[in-house]
């Protein structure tokens, strides 16, 4: 995988927004997989600025969701559908019709998972999948020991993830759902270009295990090592435990610009 070390979260957001812009100029109706959480927000802000300035035409872009809580009432402000509508769809001036995601309030959750996995394939597959990383190494909500071949399915959140996400629920862990629907690791690996952004000291350990550790389901993000075109963008703090940081810096500095991410 390619590791790009950037000075800070804003620079990471800008770099990834440029990659999305390049994708949309070659494929205007690209299917862009979006992630939630705090980390990707600078990407959406940078992309929105490009769209508003006329530098990028995102009008035909299609957006799909990575994961969703199970059991939140439809329209709950912290359901990931609501978050993506608020942070991505509305700022980019897209309509809900261009957006697909799993139904976290379905009565038959298993059927909803299978339907979503199939819908992604039928839509032609995800062109660029944005990912964050959990402090426990999860991608999407594939918690440690998720099958590396997993498809979209229901998962139970670890206590650590529920603690991490309580900040979105009035700091009250009791309000954080226990179950989620997530694209599986096998599903994520089918995207043409997974791009993981990690920022802050709190992610340094998970990043080091992802990039420099063995491929192991106990660190779900390490599965990205199996993808022929995976990019990991990290700020200095998140890169602080990488033994090969200087090598990654030198490689990126020497990369021909035409290659993009
Ligand atoms: P965060 O979440 O960006 O809010 O840290 C990342 C994740 O859990 O994937």
TrEMBL record:
<feature type="site" description="Part of the allosteric site">
    <location>
        <position position="146"/>
    </location>
</feature>
<feature type="domain" description="Glucosamine/galactosamine-6-phosphate isomerase">
    <location>
        <begin position="11"/>
        <end position="226"/>
    </location>
</feature>
<dbReference type="GO" id="GO:0006043">
    <property type="term" value="P:glucosamine catabolic process"/>
</dbReference>
<dbReference type="InterPro" id="IPR037171">
    <property type="entry name" value="NagB/RpiA_transferase-like"/>
</dbReference>
<comment type="similarity">
    <text>Belongs to the glucosamine/galactosamine-6-phosphate isomerase family. NagB subfamily.</text>
</comment>
<keyword id="KW-0021">Allosteric enzyme</keyword>
<dbReference type="GO" id="GO:0019262">
    <property type="term" value="P:N-acetylneuraminate catabolic process"/>
</dbReference>
<dbReference type="InterPro" id="IPR006148">
    <property type="entry name" value="Glc/Gal-6P_isomerase"/>
</dbReference>
<comment type="pathway">
    <text>Amino-sugar metabolism; N-acetylneuraminate degradation; D-fructose 6-phosphate from N-acetylneuraminate: step 5/5.</text>
</comment>
<feature type="active site" description="For ring-opening step">
    <location>
        <position position="136"/>
    </location>
</feature>
<protein>
    <recommendedName>
        <fullName>Glucosamine-6-phosphate deaminase</fullName>
        <ecNumber>3.5.99.6</ecNumber>
    </recommendedName>
</protein>
<dbReference type="InterPro" id="IPR018321">
    <property type="entry name" value="Glucosamine6P_isomerase_CS"/>
</dbReference>
<feature type="active site" description="Proton acceptor; for ring-opening step">
    <location>
        <position position="138"/>
    </location>
</feature>
<feature type="active site" description="For ring-opening step">
    <location>
        <position position="143"/>
    </location>
</feature>
<dbReference type="GO" id="GO:0006046">
    <property type="term" value="P:N-acetylglucosamine catabolic process"/>
</dbReference>
<dbReference type="Pfam" id="PF01182">
    <property type="entry name" value="Glucosamine_iso"/>
</dbReference>
<feature type="active site" description="Proton acceptor; for enolization step">
    <location>
        <position position="67"/>
    </location>
</feature>
<dbReference type="GO" id="GO:0004342">
    <property type="term" value="F:glucosamine-6-phosphate deaminase activity"/>
</dbReference>
<dbReference type="GO" id="GO:0042802">
    <property type="term" value="F:identical protein binding"/>
</dbReference>
<dbReference type="InterPro" id="IPR004547">
    <property type="entry name" value="Glucosamine6P_isomerase"/>
</dbReference>
<dbReference type="GO" id="GO:0005975">
    <property type="term" value="P:carbohydrate metabolic process"/>
</dbReference>
<feature type="site" description="Part of the allosteric site">
    <location>
        <position position="156"/>
    </location>
</feature>
<keyword id="KW-0378">Hydrolase</keyword>
<feature type="site" description="Part of the allosteric site">
    <location>
        <position position="153"/>
    </location>
</feature>
<keyword id="KW-0119">Carbohydrate metabolism</keyword>
<comment type="function">
    <text>Catalyzes the reversible isomerization-deamination of glucosamine 6-phosphate (GlcN6P) to form fructose 6-phosphate (Fru6P) and ammonium ion.</text>
</comment>
<feature type="site" description="Part of the allosteric site">
    <location>
        <position position="155"/>
    </location>
</feature>
<dbReference type="GO" id="GO:0005737">
    <property type="term" value="C:cytoplasm"/>
</dbReference>
């Amino acid at each position: 995988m390619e590791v790009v070390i950037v000075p800070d979260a804003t620079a990471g957001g800008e770099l990834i927004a440029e990659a999305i812009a390049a994708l949309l100029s070659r494929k205007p109706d690209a299917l862009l997989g979006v992630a939630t959480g705090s980390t990707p927000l600078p990407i959406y802000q940078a992309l929105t600025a490009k769209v508003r300035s006329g530098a990028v035409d995102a009008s035909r872009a299609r957006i799909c969701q990575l994961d969703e809580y199970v059991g939140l009432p439809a329209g709950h402000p912290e359901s990931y559908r609501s978050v993506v509508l608020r942070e991505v769809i509305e700022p980019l001036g897209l309509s809900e019709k261009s957006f697909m995601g799993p139904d976290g309030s379905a009565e038959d959750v298993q059927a909803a998972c299978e339907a979503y996995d199939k819908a992604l394939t039928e839509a032609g597959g995800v062109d660029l999948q944005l990912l964050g990383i959990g402090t426990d190494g999860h991608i999407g909500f594939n918690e440690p020991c998720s099958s590396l071949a997993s498809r979209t399915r229901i998962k139970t959140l670890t206590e650590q993830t529920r603690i991490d996400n309580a900040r979105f629920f009035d700091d009250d862990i009791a309000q954080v759902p226990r179950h989620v629907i997530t694209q599986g690791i096998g599903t994520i690996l089918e995207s043409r270009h997974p791009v993981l952004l990690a920022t802050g000291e709190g992610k340094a350990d998970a990043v080091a295990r992802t990039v420099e550790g063995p491929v192991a389901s106990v660190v779900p993000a390490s599965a990205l090592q199996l993808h022929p075109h995976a990019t990991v963008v990290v700020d200095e703090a998140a890169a602080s435990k990488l033994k090969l940081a200087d090598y990654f810096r030198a490689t990126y500095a020497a990369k021909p610009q035409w290659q993009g991410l």
